[in-house]
Amino acid sequence: MRIPILKLGNYLLVSIQIELDDKTAVQFQQDLLNMIHKTGSTGVVIDLTSVQMIDSYIARVLGDVVKMSELLGCEVIFTGIQPAVSITLIDLGIGFRNIKTAMNLEQGLEKLKQSLEG
Amino acid sequence: MRIPILKLGNYLLVSIQIELDDKTAVQFQQDLLNMIHKTGSTGVVIDLTSVQMIDSYIARVLGDVVKMSELLGCEVIFTGIQPAVSITLIDLGIGFRNIKTAMNLEQGLEKLKQSLEG
């Protein structure tokens, strides 16, 4: 089970619409980094609108993928974080430090464009 | 197993990155029509870049989804049709009659915009 990654111009779009188990999350991490490398994308929007729950392991994998992508020269924005997910993230003391967010996919793409194309 | 449908402004984006079995294809048909209805989207881009093979049943389901979407007032464009898939479609005598296509997701979105926004 892989999470589809869409290429749109210089950006990648990901919409996580399944319950993320540990294996899928790690597979996604690898797939996304490979795709960034292969396409030379400068930005990624990861949409979490359909993610209702998140645990500490998944939060860490997602947090790591941001740092790893940045090392490749690619900016990541999370969109559509649900109230329950935001509560869990803060309660777990994980948060997404220094991580950019937006309400939805369109606004995430807009934010990336502003940030990367000035 | 469901195919994720992404909402981007007035459009929906779908990238089919798994082997489509009959059940998944029918589920996708239902999901897409529900999503068009729910979001009031005016256009859909269905990217088939990762689809290496297609059979007559799947081709029919995809062809039907275009006609069904049009009934809802929504235009569909297929992108990234692989050479092998195009050969199969023509060999099977199915083709995608009167169906709009484009090379990739970006061009598909561009074509939708031109067609719908003039």
Automatic annotation (TrEMBL), chains A, B:
Q: Which InterPro entries match?
A: Bact_StressResp_Reg, STAS_dom, STAS_dom_sf
Q: Which residues form the STAS domain?
A: 1-112
CDD domains on file: STAS_RsbR_RsbS_like
Under what name is this protein listed? RsbT antagonist protein RsbS
